[in-house]
Fold this protein.
Amino acid sequence: MSVSGTQNKACCTLPPVEAQYIPKGTLKQVAGLKSYVVGPENADKAVLFVYDIFGLSPQAQQGADLIASQDFYVVVPDFLKGEYATGDMFSGTEEGNKKKEKFFGGFPGAISSQSKPVADVTAELSSKYKLGGIGVCWGYKVLVTSEGVGNFKALSGAHPSFPANDDADKINVPLLLLPSQNEDMSVMNHIYEAVEKTNPGNNRLRQFAQWHHGWMGARANLSDEGNAKAFHEGYTEVADFFKKHL
């Protein structure tokens, strides 16, 4: 395990992770998007949760609920509007590759197509709350490239997809990175070191080197004891980080 940066000494105590889970939140409209919301709406701190390409999965809902258990108002907009990626896109077949190319080539899967929708949500939320953002896989890149990235007070990325060295140029707030075994750690380290130069002592990088890309998202197998433990640890990191920086 690779760790850089300090953890909040007052670690949050989150509820246990459950394989058979009943979400605690509700659905409502936020900036014109159907959204899963959970936590106290009258809180002064909110977290925008941008899910992975598999959409509003039970794992995403449970992750949002874990963060909300620490008195954050958590909003998970359906940015993909129900048009989620499917497993056959990654089958390696010609048909699967065509589906994947179409999905990522335009709305809603193209990163650039989400810049304005994310900005609209952040504008609404940041007018009421101190706002943090967590992006899972695809959601990380959507967050850091959005025209609304300046509305956040702190950012977090779990097993980030499409990370690039120049991501750091867009980030001027505390950043938490939780890469898996599949991310390029030279890029992760570059981003961390770059944001440390502009915002020293307020960032954290922890690699979960034994876990696959997706262990905090829709690809998490919460029936597996080890994955469930890592899932809980990851969201504890996120909640601790936002407790410290929001």
Observations:
- Residues 225-245 form the longest helix (21 residues).
- The mean pLDDT is 92.
